[in-house]
């Protein structure tokens, strides 16, 4: 099934901040480690556990509702992809999945 890139968001490195808020970009460079300019503290610190627990820092979620939110998001999260070739991506670009390789 072909698709189209609707949005691109990155999280620049900011001291003491977690994964939110993100910044919209119209285009990005994709490398083996991910999107250029996208800092992922969970990945960089090689943490064990679910990075979505960081959503607890949002004022409307908090520690008391983060598990409920994670259950609601189950099977509705974004797609993950492996980078086979570095390059540029832009909002509006057409994408086509490749045959799954193990």
Fill in the keyword field for this structure.
single chain; 102 residues; alpha+beta; three-stranded antiparallel beta sheet; two-stranded antiparallel ribbon; 7 strands
Q: Any chance you could write out the topology, listing elements then pairs?
A:
Layout: E1 3-4, E2 9-10, E3 23-24, E4 27-31, E5 34-35, H1 41-44, H2 62-73, E6 87-90, E7 94-95
Antiparallel strand pairs: 1-7, 2-3, 4-5, 4-6
Count of strand segments: 7
| Strand percentage | 15-25%
Supply the number of structural domains. 1
Query: What is the count of helical runs?
Result: 2
Structural account:
By secondary structure, the protein is of the alpha+beta class. It is 16% helix and 19% strand. It has 2 helices and 7 strands. The strands form 3 sheets. Strands 5-4-6 form a 3-stranded antiparallel beta sheet, with no helix packed on it. A two-stranded antiparallel ribbon has the order 1-7. The longest helix has 12 residues, at 62-73. The radius of gyration is 15 Å and the shape is globular. The mean pLDDT is 78.
């Amino acid at each position: 099934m072909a698709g189209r890139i609707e949005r691109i968001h990155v999280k620049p490195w900011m001291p003491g901040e977690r994964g939110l808020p993100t910044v919209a970009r119209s285009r990005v460079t994709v490398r083996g480690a991910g999107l250029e300019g996208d800092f992922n503290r969970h990945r960089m610190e090689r943490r064990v556990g679910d990075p979505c627990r960081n959503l607890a820092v949002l004022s409307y979620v908090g520690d008391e509702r983060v598990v409920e939110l994670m259950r609601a998001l189950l099977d509705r999260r974004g797609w993950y992809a492996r980078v086979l070739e570095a390059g540029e991506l832009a909002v509006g670009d057409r994408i086509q999945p490749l045959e799954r390789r193990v």
